[in-house]
């Protein structure tokens, strides 16, 4: 039995890509995966992972192109299909065939794809943190443009102000220490010593070249996992789409939370709902 009171940072080579992940808790217990959003890192949901690790074995990967994982080698690397190939390889190497899944934004879309694929991987519970089966085309175009040319700053404080201002507008509310920790995890130095976002700008390719990632009904209708959709007060999931998700496929339950699209799932009320949901 392997017991981890604090998280362990690990790397595995999956689909010829180096993938970094944090591992929490007793590895002999049932496993929960927390997969972050399009530009997040494995640090995003640290508080939720720590709380879940009292009961579960918790795995929090850095997506390909994010954090300490490899950047893209090919355009396909940013698609949900290749993300799913990488994830399946990761869990095979870890000897995991049954999972509970918590996915924020793109991480939730990945959970939908994995739960529907015939891959020998059973996802029994699926938590979708403000992600549906589609995405508005204008929003996709704006994301593609923004991700392809991340801003660069001379000073870390300027970078920090930009990140905080943007995420605050997206509805994120954090303590000063949490802001500092999050922003530090999102920063990297450029070759000339300035500061920018940690992620690979080729993440933009998904929004421009992989429209199949934004029409997931064929996958969603095949999902058998117990599913819940948690929507922010200012959600990217339209009301009609949420209603249809509650009627089709796994017939997800719906929960509204405060804030916007981005959530670290660090509020106790939200964590309590997730813990209760995962129990069954």
UniProtKB/TrEMBL annotation:
One of its GO terms (molecular function) is hydrolase activity. Pfam families: Abhydrolase_1. The keyword Amino-acid biosynthesis does not apply. InterPro entries: AB_hydrolase_1, AB_hydrolase_fold, AB_hydrolase_sf. GO terms for cellular component: membrane. Gene3D superfamilies: alpha/beta hydrolase. Residues 31-144 form the AB hydrolase-1 domain. Keywords: Hydrolase. PANTHER family: HYDROLASE, PUTATIVE (AFU_ORTHOLOGUE AFUA_2G14860)-RELATED, MONOACYLGLYCEROL LIPASE. This is Alpha/beta hydrolase. The lineage of its organism: Bacteria, Pseudomonadati, Pseudomonadota, Alphaproteobacteria, Emcibacterales.
